[in-house]
Here is the input.
Amino acid sequence: MSNAVVGLTPAQSAETSLEQAVCVEGLRLKYPGEDRLMFKDLSFSAARGEKVLLLGPSGCGKSTLLQVLSGMIPRATEVPMKCEVQRVPDSWGYVFQDPDTQFCMPYVDEELAFVLENLSVPREEMRERMQAALEEVGLDLDELHMPITHLSQGMKQRLALASALLLEPEVLFLDEPSALLDPEGREQIWSAVKAVSEGRTLIIVEHRIEEMAHYVDRVVLFSPEGEILGDGPPAVIFADYEQELKSYGIWYPGVWKDYARSPAGKELFAPIDGKDQVAGNRLPGDGGTLPDVLHREPVIRLGAFRGMRWNKPVISLPSAEVYPGDFIAVIGPNGAGKSSLLLSLMGLLRAEGTYELCGEKVIQGKRRKVRKERERKLRQIGFVFQNPELQFLTERIGDEVVYSLLVDQMPPEEAQMQADRCLERFGLKGMDGRHPYQLSTGQKRRLSVATAMARQPAVLLLDEPTFGQDARNTFAILEMCEQLRCTGTAILMVTHEMEIAQRAATHIWEIREGQLTSSMPSPRWSGGTESKRHTVAGVNGAADTPSVISAAHHHHTGVSS
Amino acid sequence: MNIWNPVRITWLHRANPVVKLGLIIGLFFMTVLTHNLDFVMYQAFVFTVCLLVLSGVKPWKMLLFLIPFLLAFISSSSSMMLFGKGDTIWWEWGLFRVSEESFYRGLHLGFKGIAFASEGLLLVTTTSSVDLFYSLMQKLRLAPKYAYSFMASIRLLPMVWEEYVIRRQALKVRGVLPIRGIRGIVSRAGLYVVPLLAQSIRRAHRVAAAMEAKQFDGDGAKSRTYYYPFRYSRYDLLVIGLLAAAACCAYIAAGYFPWFGIGDVRFD
Here is the structure.
């Protein structure tokens, strides 16, 4: 402690300690089992009332730094560390990433009471303080005694913020509070944060920074090695370190536009002229002659299709067709039935109505023979769940893909060769021997997609595969989907990301309250025809992408003039 | 949790959970130490009636919940009847030997099971886990770290179930074929246990970090205030009186209206 203030007179040191809300100097930290130091002589401080955003690639130690600054390391989590100065704020609050693992009590009031009990607040004052905190974060509940499970994910995060506020924090630490939220929830949590930040110091770690990039006073950019690369006002950092922001996969404002301009992005978002496609070569590189195309059958045909849970229809589609080479983005609010649609197509939920897959009827029924037959047919569909870990079966990365192929009765040598090729394509080569759980989140996701794609299914269903992923991983997943689409696989992807729906998908299905309310070609599909403007406006106001709208508008006026 | 939602709030709901817990443990001991068939039968009857009246749950729902216990009654009593020791043989066929003693002991065992179930359900249906742990902290000085870790883990249980369902679906999607026999069961269990455990441990760690961040001090029970205060009230006396009266009723009924009248069922 004394080392750091050697050069200062007592008066000066008192002054700096007054100004600084948090401070750490000469920090060295190493997780047990890791080869290298996470931080090597890192110094960081934030002034009172300052709003600081920490940016950097996954795994660079931003979250760890947040825990050190709050004193959670080493007080609560024991990690070997050493530093010259560690100034922990007197009062602080913390909001974590996962909305489901921040609470220990079943009801809203009980959870808030838990915090107040920790502070020994008399019981008579509790309700009043709870209400004040909820009001501050804009959480308007009819009844305080409400089960937390009834709240949406966005509301849960605001509840987490409210319980942090009960601590009357001088400093608020936010560890990717919006990473696992849909666009609506993201907006709500950030407006709540802005509303309560008055007079408080904010230290934020976040990948999705559209909402608050220009709200913070200072941005600190970390390198993959945990060193500070840049430190300054947001405008300066964003201008000076554009390349780093891109390569670290940060969702900086305009990331989609920049990607669309890159060679990979141009290919991925290349417009497809729907009208031409109907008449001629619908698939790039397909080279099909006209008669061939005319005979092209839909890979999925649905009529009066209903997916059931406990004998109640949770999703119904009057009629729908999916053609080879379609990339359908399934959008809609939470709980509308998007995932149920995928599950019932996959045969994991009971379904009713007509369902044809590759020209053959999928017969519903419980009889053993019917069921076996159905399962055999549905093997033509690949499925990627949201949590990759729950999909892994083997203890070696190399075996994961092989397993998928062996199930399809492929000879072992051929399966091994094909799996190797597949892993190489997904950038997972050379780690065959490791356990799937040892991969980074992005790699796990890639592996789970690889296991589904290796079998070259006729249809690939993906349930929010880009959820919580950084920009780089998101683009990587989209590129893989596009490659597969080009070979004729039909893709259905549930997503909250309007940019994906509009830029990468060929069609958009909107689901509300268990009904397919609209299905239309995406701006990409109609590639420069008049329907473009119409489509963009039609995507239920959630079109949080003024750039696309204006671009489409330009195009439209250009065409008409 | 919702299935237990009572339609009426009874005295039992209002009584202090600690008193109820003590009372139910007392009743358990009474049932365990009873060797008189009539007394046990009347206990089973009386406490089932108590359960129907005092749980506040709709009677048909409660009877539905009792079905598994009825099955337990049949299985435990029938196995005791068929295989138990005894001198007065009533019927014999191969391995099966029903004797008078084993028959009555079987009935005795079955009724004991029903009595246990009713007593346990009396506590479970009228006490939420949060109430129980709050009153244990306040009345029996249970350290908050144990109480809150229990309450937090109860909250995590539905998530484990959800993940189990997803895992089952994922295995189906990946084309895992069921292997028959014991080896199949073992390998199948491994496929579930490892990922679910990994997720749960990580989740528990995150919840613990969040609790620490909310300034939770597991040992500081002294200065802690409580959102739900638990005091002893007249309902505690009422409930003690009521359940004691129920036990007395069973005892007296067994004395005056014995159905079997065979006294101690133990075989010696």
Notes: Chain A has two domains: 14-258, 300-521.
